[in-house]
Automatic annotation (TrEMBL):
Name used for this protein in its record: Strictosidine synthase conserved region domain-containing protein
Organism expressing this protein natively: Setaria italica (Foxtail millet)
Pfam family for this entry, one: Str_synth
Location of the Strictosidine synthase conserved region domain: 161-248
Compartment(s) of residence: Vacuole
Similarity field: Belongs to the strictosidine synthase family.
UniProt keyword annotations, A-Z: Glycoprotein, Signal, Vacuole
Alphabetical list of Gene3D superfamilies matching this protein: TolB, C-terminal domain (2.120.10.30)
Keyword Cell membrane applies: no
GO MF terms, alphabetically ordered: hydrolase activity
Length: 342
C-alpha cells in the first residue's frame, strides 16, 4: 500500500510540475512586433485625407475608403487609381461639397463624413456609418447613398462612428459615440468624460434600430465575432474593448474583454479568430519617459490577450487595420494615403 501511495504522490508531483512548466512557458511567450515603417503607400487624390475605415467587396475588390470630403472612394489598381464610389445625398446637390475651397472641417456636417464601412456579401450592399447623416447604404454599383436611420428611441444620432455587418442576417451593429457632441468636437467627449454613447442594431428585415446598450464612454469600432455570439466594441476612452453578448447564457451582458495600450478606433476580425485594433494614440506615460516604440495597433486573441503589436514612425496614427489575404491594409483619419504591409 505504501508503494502505491508513493507512486501516486510521484505522479501527482510530475503532473503539477508539467502544468507549472506549461504555464510558465505560455506566460513567457513574447508578443510579436510587426513594423509598418516600410509599408507601401497608396496616395489619396489631391485635396482629400483621412481614410478612416477600409472595406473590400464580395469580389475582393478594393479597398474602399471613406475620406474627408464626404465620399467613399474605390481603389481600382494602379491603372484606374481612386474613383468615386458613393456619396451622401447632399454631396452632388451642394456646390460647396465639390468646390474644395473650404476646409473639410467646415463642410463635413453638410457634405458628410463616412467613417465605418462594411459590405454585406450576399447583396453587395455597402453600409456606411456617416458621422453626421447617420446609417446609410448604397448598392453594389455605388452612387448616392440611402439614409436608413438618423435616430433611435426618439434620440437623434450625433456621432455615428463604427459598424460591422452580420454576414448571416444582414443586421448591422454600429455605434453613436455621443448623443451630446458631434464628430467635430470629439475631443470634448474625452475632456468632459462624456458617457452618453450607444451600441445600436439595425434590423435589416424590420428596418428598425434598437439600442443594445446606452450610457457608454466613447464607443467607437465594432466587430461581430466569427461565431456570431457577441460583438466587440472598442472604447476610445478609457482605452478598453468590451464584449456585448448576443447569444447564450450571457446574452445581453456587457463585459470587459481587454485593457488596451492606447486609444482605439476601429476593430476588425483577423484570420485566426481574434481581432485587430487600430490605435489613434498611445496612453500617456506617468513617468514621462519616451516610449521605446510607437504603437499604432494591436492584435488580440479571441480571449482578449494581446498577441501582436504594430509599430510605426513617430507621428503616424492609425484608425483601421484590415487583414485580407495575409496582408494588412492600414487606414488613418489623419494621413493622405492608405498603407499596405506585405
Amino acid at each position: 500500500m505504501a508503494r502505491i501511495k508513493n507512486l501516486v504522490a510521484s505522479l501527482l508531483c510530475a503532473v503539477a510540475l508539467a502544468l507549472l512548466l506549461t504555464s510558465s512557458s505560455c506566460a513567457a511567450q513574447p508578443i510579436k512586433t510587426t513594423p509598418t515603417l516600410w509599408s507601401f503607400h497608396l496616395p489619396l487624390p489631391n485635396g482629400v485625407t483621412g481614410a478612416e475605415s477600409l472595406a473590400f467587396d464580395r469580389l475582393g475588390q478594393g479597398p474602399y475608403a471613406g475620406v474627408s470630403d464626404g465620399r467613399v472612394l474605390k481603389w481600382g489598381g494602379s491603372t484606374l487609381g481612386w474613383t468615386t464610389f458613393a456619396h451622401s445625398p447632399n454631396y452632388r446637390k451642394i456646390p460647396l461639397c465639390t468646390a474644395s475651397v473650404v476646409p473639410s472641417e467646415e463642410t463635413e456636417s453638410i457634405c458628410g463624413r463616412p467613417l465605418g464601412l462594411q459590405f454585406f456579401a450576399k447583396t453587395g450592399d455597402l453600409y456606411i456609418a456617416d458621422a453626421y447623416h447617420g446609417l446609410m447604404k448604397v448598392g453594389p454599383d455605388g452612387g448616392e447613398a440611402e439614409v436608413l436611420a438618423t435616430q433611435a428611441d426618439g434620440v437623434p444620432f450625433h456621432f455615428v462612428n463604427g459598424l460591422d455587418v452580420d454576414q448571416a442576417t444582414g443586421d448591422v451593429y454600429f455605434t453613436d459615440s455621443s448623443i451630446t457632441y458631434p464628430r467635430r468636437f470629439n475631443t470634448e467627449i474625452m475632456m468632459n468624460a462624456d458617457a452618453t454613447g450607444r451600441l445600436l442594431k439595425y434590423d435589416a428585415r424590420a428596418k428598425q434600430v434598437t439600442v443594445l446598450r446606452a450610457g457608454l464612454p466613447y464607443p467607437n469600432g465594432v466587430a461581430v465575432s466569427g461565431d456570431r455570439t457577441h460583438v466587440v466594441v472598442a472604447h476610445t476612452v478609457p482605452c478598453q474593448a468590451f464584449r456585448y453578448w448576443l447569444k447564450g447564457s450571457k446574452a445581453g451582458q456587457y463585459e470587459l474583454m481587454a485593457d488596451l495600450p492606447g486609444y482605439p478606433d476601429n476593430v476588425r476580425r483577423d484570420a485566426k479568430g481574434g481581432y485587430w485594433v487600430a490605435l489613434n494614440q498611445e496612453k500617456a506615460r506617468l513617468d514621462a519617459a519616451a516610449p521605446v516604440k510607437h504603437l499604432v495597433g494591436v492584435r488580440l486573441g479571441s480571449d482578449g490577450v494581446e498577441v501582436e503589436e504594430l509599430t510605426a514612425a513617430k507621428g503616424v496614427t492609425l484608425s483601421d487595420v484590415a487583414e485580407k489575404d495575409g496582408q494588412l491594409w492600414l487606414g488613418s483619419v489623419e494621413l493622405d494615403y492608405v498603407g499596405l504591409v506585405y
